[in-house]
Design brief:
single chain, alpha+beta, Arc Repressor Mutant, subunit A, three-stranded antiparallel β-sheet, 6 helices, 50% helix, globular
Length: 116
Amino acid sequence: MARAKRYDWRTGCSVEATLSVIGGLWKAVILFHLLDGKKRFGELSRLVPGATQRMLTLQLRELEADGVILRTVFPEVPPRVEYELTEFGRSLEPVLLTMRDWGEGFQESGVSAVAR
C-alpha cells in the first residue's frame, strides 16, 4: 500500500480535511464510479474521458495513499490491475451520492456558471 500523505490543514475545518482527500480534479468522479464495484484502469479511463492517463494514475495513487482505494495487481502477462474502494473509502458513499444529487439539481436548474 502506498504511504499516506501528511497534511498540514490551515483552517482546522473538517470540510478542508474531506477536500484534501477527495478534492483532486477527478478524485470524486473516480470514487463515484468505484461505488459500483471493482474497475480496471481501462474502465476508469473510459468513465473519466477528460483525464489523461498520467492524471488518472496520479489521482489513483493519491487515493490509495490516503487509504480510500485498494489497488490489486494480478501476476499475469500482461499484468491486470483492479481498483476498489476500501471500507474507509466506502464511508464516502453518502457524501458522493449527495454530491451527485446536488449536481443533478444544479444542471437541471439552468443556472449559468457566470454570476448574474
